[in-house]
Amino acid sequence: MTGSGRESFKEIFSKEETLMSDEHLLYRVENNTAYITINREKQRNAITPEAIELFHDYLDRAGTDPDVRAVLVTGAGDKAFCTGAQLGDGLSSDGRKVFARYADLLKRLATFPKPTVARVKGFCLAGGTGFMLACDIVVASDDSSFGTPEVNVGLWPMMIGALIFRNVPRKKAMEMILLGERIRAAEALAMGLITRVVPAVDLDGAVDAVLKNLAAKSPIGMKIGKEAFHAAEGMDLEEALDYLSIKIAEVASTEDAREGITAFIEKRQPVFRGR
What we know:
Elements: H1 9-14, E1 20-21, E2 25-30, E3 33-38, H2 49-64, E4 70-75, E5 80-82, H3 95-110, E6 116-120, E7 123-125, H4 127-134, E8 137-141, E9 145-147, H5 158-164, H6 170-179, E10 183-184, H7 185-191, E11 196-198, H8 203-215, H9 219-233, H10 237-252, H11 255-265
Helix pairs in contact: 2-3, 3-4, 4-5, 9-10
């Protein structure tokens, strides 16, 4: 246990018991966080159609569980976060369905009403880059590497590209996609692909700190704020300002907002209840 009473990331995943598990994906709720782990370490956590369906199911659970205030996505082991689809799955007779379900998953993850965090250690490639970019916050070890190698096998990062262009300037995005080269963590940070880089030995502590911070925030404030952020992203300036003036009134009317302001005046920590 940590000094604050929260179990660390490493302690949580050293336990044998999980709420739900499968050979493809693991799910556990601890410390107000839903931990989703791609569990194919020997295959460098390549994603399968089965894992995509499980991922949808686990997001359903996390979204409706009042104890969950954030979602953490990671890969088993220390070699890879996720290296994309298992080669061949997209080329099967139902490949179009697999691609559609993956696209649906990226949409859900990118607009999830609760904060999402990616913990990256090792390779984060192809479809794994999509999962990572769909998360709100990305904490990576300094020995991690990123990339979209699809072009090297005659493919193109189609759905992933939509997320790349929303995070990276156009020229850097095109260079990344066209060359298909590996990108080291420091460069990924400079490009805007990820949000934090830490030494590998500090990764779990850094992730724990982020999750603890998120768990202390107002769930209803985060939900309204994230929904507003994504809706306003596609609006012109005048429309966005009009829309956001309505949303600020909505969030200001919540019990959590009143509690937060009262706690600030009384110089104490707020107790948010998600209302």
